[in-house]
Amino acid sequence: MQNFTFQNGTEIVFGKGVEEKTGEKVKEFSDRTLFLYGQGSIKKYGIYEGVVSSLEDSGIETVELGGVQPNPRLGLVKKGIDLCESNDLDFILAVGGGSVIDTAKAIAIGVPYEGDVWDFYESDKTVEKALPVGTVLTIPAAGSESSSGSVITKEEGGYKRDVGSEKIRPKFAIMNPEFTYTLPDFQTAAGAADIMSHVMERYFTNEPDVDFTDRLSEATLKTIVENTPKAIEHPESYGPRSQIMWASTVAHNDLLGTGREEDWASHKIEHELSGMFDVTHGAGLAITFPAWMKYNYQKNVERFAQFAVRVWNVDPDFFSLEETALQGIHELEEFYKSIGLPTRLEDLEEEISEEEMKEMAAKCTEDGPVGNFVELNETDVLKIYKLAQ
Fold first, then answer.
1. Which among 78, 311, 344, 364 would be 20 to 30 A from 44, CA to CA?
2. What pLDDT, in 10s, does the model give residues 93-110?
3. For the whole model, what pTM was predicted?
């Protein structure tokens, strides 16, 4: 196990009715905030009114900015920066899912920075300052509500890139599982794949003696596998919805990565897919992650076999070690299919040509090889896209 320092400064406020505390929490940091949200679903389902009421009761002045899209765009980030600067706003409240929260983090970085905020996403530039961010979570998936990362898509060229800094970890996360009752089945399923991928990027490691975090990771994966079908069949079931929401946060709050080397190649491979073709991130991961597994499982067959046995209950007495490992990958794909997700590029509405796959592979590795479990170059990534066909 590697040395590590773990500290997560996000205050989690979880349960029924906790949105009533939003104003109180914002008030700890500011009287003037940018109120950021997505495509309007929070107004359709009554979330907006409750949050606004709480802010007004606490005397918080707000400037609203809606319209955040999935695979959030740089253009709206820059609009948010302008609004904060012109209205002297010093806090950002993100009400929504990962796309809204990632946009809020990008705005938070951009306000105190004199240059182009994209500088942080296309290079290793260090974040020195950022406005504080708070969140009201409506979609459990990205884990951005307590993570230190942000992913943004630049419209020109379809580049989807990330930045990480403790400066942008949210100050608080208001989490009411009832807000997820109205999620479409596909969004629930795509969120599940996103959550599982955050765990698996940490699970497949070369670091020895990490069985404790292995077990935590396996429990998180099994929680999603057991509860996602229940949430889809009974959308207003608080038990499954609450477990999914909490698992989403734990999957990406850095706890499961303590003491171990993480990979993240599958995410980078998927970022090119969703950056160029606007594929839902979780759906893209349901395609790219199993393909990555098939390409790399022989690097550590034992770990993949452990994944099969502990997560999918594959009986190792019926299979060889390699067959057990492959059966685990098969079970993952079958689970994704069972909840309505694509597992092949051909399942997508838009046909992706070999030339486009070559372009994605080149963009994915333009700064060098990706991944730590196995370092992957441009040729490797292209083979993974082809495996995903």
1. 78
2. 999 999 999 999 999 999
3. 0.95
